Amino acid sequence: MGRHGKTATLYSPPIDDFGADGVPHSKMIDDLLARMSLREKVGQLNYPHAGGLPTTGAAQGADTRTLILRGELCGTSAGHDAAARRALQKLAVEQGPHGIPLFFARDCLQRYVTGAPIPLAQSCSWEPELLRRIAQMTAAEARADGVNLNWAPMLDISHDARWGRVAEGHGELPYLCSRYAEAVVQGYQGSDGDVAKPSRMMATLKHFAGYGLALAGRDYAAVEASPAALMRIMEPFRAGIAAGAGAVMVAFSALNGMPATAHRVLLHHVLRERFGFEGLVVTDFTAIDPELVNHGIAANAREAAYLAFTAGVTVDLVSGAFLNHLEGLVAEGRITEDEVTARCRLVLEAKARLGLFEDPYLGLEEGSRRVRKPAHVALAREAAVKGLVLLKNDGVLPLARGGRLAVIGPLADNRIDMQGTWAIDVDPMSNVTVLDGLRQGGGNTHVLHAKGCNIVEDGNVAARLNIHNRQMPSAVIDGRPLAEMIAEARAVASEADAIVLCLGEAKEHAGESSTRLDIALPGAQQALFDAMRATGKPLVAIAIAGRPLALTGIMAADALIWTGHPGAEGGHAIADVIYGGKAPSGRLSMALPRHVGQLPLATEELPTGRPRDAIGIDVAGDHELDETGRHAFRKFTTACILEGPATPLFPAGFGLTYTRFDYGAATASARLLKGGQAVLEVSVPVTNAGEREGTEVVQLWLRDPVATISRPVRELRGFVRLTLKPGDTAVARFRLTVADLCYDRGASLESMTRSWEPGEFILMLGPNARDVQPLTVTWDA
């Protein structure tokens, strides 16, 4: 139909399914709750971190065995040792009170053993079905290793590439991210929501809400946003909940002055009542204590526990505040045991849905289950190809095999940084470097190599980048002088017919607690680029990074590619595209800025009162003369910053391939529609006018130019992938109803209403957010 992934019908958890003994789960849970003490019920709301394992928070490891024997935890982090997890599960089932099995959770951000690309790179495929398959692969691998609860997907919308966690998300566009939310939840949990199957695990939508809007991209910083803006960026959570996600993780940050962990309006009014969520509400690590105390809204851990519990939190990750203080709060009459029982019921229902009462040892059988299957490796390679975005090509690509090729740069022969952040279960030795890929895929091409420069030159920064890379450091500083390294690269390049220059970021440049002050190439990489450009050889620049970088300084390359961190098969995928075995089809899911000073940069921004190209200041040029010999004037419009344009270097949705597509005239089934039941069909013909097969992503953007409140200048409302042979034409078709015109408005989150308003709407069709043809339609009540 031309629209991907319409919002699914709200999924109802099968809490009345029957267990292996024929007893309905609801009755089994009732009987269990009747036997449990208050302390044991509170214990099911406590999720400590496994002793001895690292954490991004401030808590120390817990005495896990003692907590199990007392019935004082619901689960623990999965760790790397399935045998140790089995021993803990055996202890819980055989010696813990009531034999309640444990959750084992893990951060599996669309990869487990097999290293798929980072989620941001996956999102550049504009193919939800691909992400569903990757999530399905991840769930199968993780559940086979005993992991049943996944702290993923991350659905935070962000417009600031300084924020390191953009790597974990799916871009800046709520509509696109919503389609991915549906797909990934279905991949983890199955389209039927039966997470008890051996290849399934429970999804956790994170971080609710607004976390990606952190001030200046500083991780954990406060968020100030209007209710309307918040409702727009919460659309992916609404979609993931409708798809059946079993858990939601709350954001670390304060939202309009109230930390999300204690935000009752957010967690109850919006999440439970408006979005209809019925599953687990989980804090992030240590978010109750000490973080609510640090936020300044609680004097101590006891008050922090009270605030989080009354806001609607189900499970306390790591802090221990619930375990230490909920009983006392019941004794004081500030909360009731019935409230604790209701929260405990949610945890037990989740365990029942996972099938843990029937088979607590699922995936914990004797022997290793960590196997990289050939089909999974092939999928990782496919994803890396489809997420790669060709930004510029002056006829250099694809490269012909044969001859001599110089592969240069700090990321050319860098194995661990291919996988990107949060690939905690991926063996870095399985990663294919760009150098490996170009050598193995190049046939009789003679491939030369030089490092050229370090990723970073600062030893302190290198140490931080290696914090999670003890086994295989990524930021290894070559002690030679920079001039010597560049001279070596220049000598290698002089022997080659073309240069592939691999630049970008280490994997820990992105991810949690990895904000960057600048998003230009780090270290001396710009100097290396300038030296390679000066050789005059055909130059292909590849940006391998965990975020959108400001690539203005390397636009002089003959060809430019952004890959994200492309995963274990990244080297093969890059070779597939560079040598022409595969055509690039990726499209940006976030706009690429020209400079860090543009940030935050939102494609779906609100309009300004001064039109971009009509208002400005005329300034006489010092050295420029017009055709009459007088001083020429330069207009500094509102589309300009003093140093240059305020527009993106590349807009959202942008991406090239090895052919050319021509668009015909867009048409609408009607220009005047009436009533809430009307359906508008919009279409545009697209022709492959080039000489080889290629894929185009046709996008539909919408603007509501006159409304009760100011509406974005554009909002994505649909997209279609068309794969066409040379000379072929296909029609991209889109179907709109009033549901696509609806938006939330109100003075507060509590007072929000969702509806559409009659009037004119501007439809924009094209290959990206910038290059579109408009159609205006009127939709009356």
Topology, element by element:
Layout: H1 25-35, H2 38-43, E1 46-47, H3 64-70, E2 75-77, H4 82-95, E3 103-106, H5 119-123, H6 128-143, E4 149-150, H7 174-189, E5 202-208, H8 227-233, H9 235-242, E6 247-250, E7 254-255, E8 258-259, H10 264-274, E9 280-282, H11 291-295, H12 301-311, E10 316-317, H13 321-331, H14 337-353, H15 374-387, E11 389-393, E12 404-408, H16 434-441, E13 446-450, H17 459-465, H18 482-494, E14 498-504, H19 525-533, E15 539-544, E16 559-562, H20 570-578, E17 616-625, E18 631-637, E19 640-641, E20 644-645, E21 661-663, E22 667-668, E23 672-674, E24 680-688, E25 694-703, E26 715-724, E27 729-736, E28 743-745, E29 753-755, E30 759-766, E31 773-780
Helix pairs in contact: 1-14, 3-4, 6-7, 6-15, 7-9, 12-13, 15-20, 16-20, 18-19
